[in-house]
Amino acid sequence: MINNIAKRRLLREIKETDFVLTELNLFLDTHPDHQEALKMFSTYEKKAERLKAEYQRLFGPLTPSANNNTTTWEWIQGPWPWEN
Amino acid sequence: MWEYQKKLQIPINIKNPNPKLAAFIVSQYGGPDGELGASMRYLSQRFSMEDDMAKGLLTDIGTEELAHLEMVGALIHQLTKNATTTEIENSPMAPYYIDHAKGVYPAAAAGNPWKAEYIGVKGDPIADLVEDLAADGAISYTQHV
């Protein structure tokens, strides 16, 4: 239960960070030399990387390529994102 | 190409089944102004864009629309999953249920399956970008009814 709350909280933080990155990505597509946005993108990208590494260490892979369990293919283990 | 990330763009956690709401929301999945049309529109139009800015932008918007499609699918799934047959029978979801049960199928609110006719791809950057503006106008209409 505590594990589930921690998992949900960390995933929420990843989603918030990725949401910022998606918006910055779209902005940068049309403003490729905007220095402030580039700097923000780099800051949030580092944060996302750190959060995802932590999440994947504790709760399993977010992408198939992040499956580093050598005894089982952890990627398929539920719940899947649309399940609650 | 794409690599799937095992997460929704925004959390969706519905506690109470509501087949009536699902029947309305299904149009945002596969209706004329739904997310399937949006993703196919941008991802198809990008091939004939001429400058890198437009190619990049349509690729990234089309990708984000796929994430929206997944969230709308999750909404329909969670709104119907624990609904009883009686609840569905007495809701506007009944006709959909006959053919698709609790599956998530791309159809409009009135039941028409998704059609490529909902989108325009003319191979001309200006025509396609104008079509995008019209489509976005239609979406802001649907999302505020």
**What pattern of helices and strands is seen along the backbone of chain B?**
HHHHHH
Tally of extended strands of chain B? 0
Instruction: Give a short account of the largest sheet of chain B.
Output: none
Proportion of residues in helical segments of chain A = 55-70%
Can you offer a commentary on this structure?
The complex is a heterodimer of chains A (84) and B (145). Chain A contains two helices and no strands. With 84 residues, chain A is mainly α. Chain A has one domain. The two termini of chain A are 14 Å apart. The model of chain A has no long low-confidence stretch (mean pLDDT 95). With 145 residues, chain B is mostly helical. Helix content of chain B is 57%, strand content 0%. Chain B has helices at residues 19-30, 35-45, 52-80, 85-89, 94-100, 125-142. In chain B, helix 1 packs antiparallel against helix 3 and helix 2 (35-45) packs antiparallel against helix 6. Chain B starts with 18 loop residues before the first helix and ends with a helix. The A-B interface holds A 8, 11-12, 14-15, 18-19, 22, 25-26, 29-30, 32, 61-65, 75, 80-84 and B 3-14, 53, 56-57, 60-61, 64, 70, 73-74, 77-78.
Task: List descriptors.
heterodimer; A: 84 residues; mainly alpha; elongated; B: 145 residues; Ferritin; 6 helices
Produce a short descriptive summary:
By secondary structure, chain A is mostly helical. Chain A contains 2 helices and no strands. Chain A has one domain (2-61).
Topology:
The complex is a heterodimer of chains A (84) and B (145).
Chain A: H1 2-30, H2 35-59
Helix pairs in contact in A: 1-2
Chain B: H1 19-30, H2 35-45, H3 52-80, H4 85-89, H5 94-100, H6 125-142
Helix pairs in contact in B: 1-3, 2-3, 2-6
